[in-house]
Amino acid sequence: MKFLFDLFPVILFFIVFKWGENNLSQAQALVQQYFSGLIGPGTVTPDQAPILIATGVAILATVAQIGYLLARKRKVDGMLWLSLAIIVIFGGATIYFHSDAFIKWKPTVLYWIFALGLALSPLIAKKNLIRAMMEKSMTLPDAIWTRLNLTWAGFFALMGALNLFVAFNFTTSAWVNFKLFGVTALMIVFVVGQMTMLSKYMKDSP
After folding, report:
1. How far is it, in rounded angstroms, from Cα 14 to Cα 55?
2. In the 8-state DSSP scheme, what is residue 35?
3. Which residue stretches of 72-202 are H helix?
4. Which residue in 45, 55, 57, 100 has its CB near the most CB atoms, within 10 A?
């Protein structure tokens, strides 16, 4: 359930974009009706409307996620606050300038912040972030924790670069598909690979 909860804004982004892509005139009308006060100079074309509506819905969905957790008196992870800040900034720029370039950069910025945080935390804060998150569920040698932390940092760095490659070398529709299906598949494959590698240590966990 948490996996679906985390994907909630991405799933809504995908659904709304695909609807707008297949209903360009209606999407343009919705932008003119609800986004007129948020858009800068220039005219929003029918082709631009789907990404603007999808971006607006993704921002609202992220706000709704945090609101739900606060209403249930649950802790809001720092990563979710960070995701909200980034989507408000880059999503807001997408809507104001009616340009999809900003929202396409959003995942990369988030991935690279994760990568830098993981890579630099042992140097700056003397803390292995992956170990801090996972050591309650498994016991690993220090060298393995270090390797695991660097592996995750490298994964997020590569994901950020891959997002830019897809975003600016393929159509916006293809990028939206990749954002939901491609990223999810790569994340699952990576996690399964990590768990397979660590399985021998899990057996020795208390």
Report:
1. 10
2. S
3. 78-97, 101-124, 129-134, 142-169, 172-177, 183-202
4. 55
**Cα–Cα nearest to 53, from 22, 7, 86, 84:** 22
* Residue 131, both tokens: 């170990």
Q: For the segment 188-205, what is each residue's pLDDT rounded down to a tens digit? A: 999 999 888 887 776 544
For residues 112 and 108, give the distance between their C-alpha atoms in angstroms, rounded to a whole number. 6
CA angle 73, 78, 84 (to 5 degrees): 90
pLDDT, tens only, 110-132: 999 999 999 999 888 888 988 88
pLDDT given for residue 60 in this prediction? 96
Q: Which of the pair, 24 or 78, is modelled with greater confidence?
A: 24
In DSSP notation, 16-65 reads HHHHHHH-HHHHHHHHHHHSTTT--SSPPPTTTHHHHHHHHHHHHHHHHH
What SS3 class is residue 75?
A: coil
